[in-house]
Amino acid sequence: MSKIRVLSGMRPTGPLHLGHLHGVLKNWLELQEKYECFYFIADWHALTTEYENPENISEFSKELFLEWLSVGLSPQKSTLFIQSAIKEHAELHLLFSMFIPVPWLERNPSYKEMLQNIQNKDLNTYGFLGYPVLQAADILIYKAQKVPVGVDQVPHLELTREIARRFNFLYRVNYFPEPEPILSEVSKIPGIDGRKMSKSYGNAIFLNDLPEVVKEKVMNYVTDIQRIKKSDPGDPENRCVAFNLIKLYYSNEEIKEIIRDCKNAVLGCVECKKRLADKIISELEKIWDKRLEMEKEDWKEMLYKGVETAREIAHQTVEEVNIIIFRKKLI
To answer: What are the transmembrane regions (predicted)?
Structure first.
């Protein structure tokens, strides 16, 4: 490989939101300029939580791909593909699952957190418990050296590194690399209620929300609860959830001005959030315009070419892994 290879994916479980845009996609855009990037639609991973209602996954996959193109991901700069089109991911997952101790999966903090927070779905399934193994297969099948992750995903990547080490140790080879994390500068974007922005929590501003919907959601953001009246001094840096979004959409000088005016009770929360909504809508309008362009392009052909590129690499890896495990080529 002439360039360092980077891999990441997204589950098609619904529309993208500002958390995806600032926490993931803007990072991906920078990475595709300097690395060999593989980005995939993780539709098998979507089944871990949507197995009872899988009929929307195909449509969500299409929407996800179009939104990727709309924010600027390029098939000319990155390999963009869909997971289920590469059956080798499932084969490598199966081979890995033969030697992964169950306690490795049960100690995963994200697994425990989602079991606690998502009460409307039965997540006590093998697929949900074992999805970090499939995630490891997704990464290692392309021998990715770097993986962009948020802080909450680091334990998953560490499990991938452990799986790579265990494979290399068991079969006495130096075959799989141990991928390193690329931590996103913006790891968690707060939702309307202050928790991490998430479709599951119902607190997100989506990229395809209409302008009036964006305005309504921004106005519902939690601000300084100790600031009862506009004449009360505020503390945006320590007590305002909406301030986390302000830091993303304003220049440093503008942020300093907002802090000063809030602390001096010159700028009220309502007016501040109105201005913030306008800033967000202005950026989203560029994505909406690009989306209209992409719908006119042959996006299926773009996706198919990415699948071809990914499949060739994945097939070679699985062939080699089978030879390593069984010590010979069986067929």
So the answer is: none
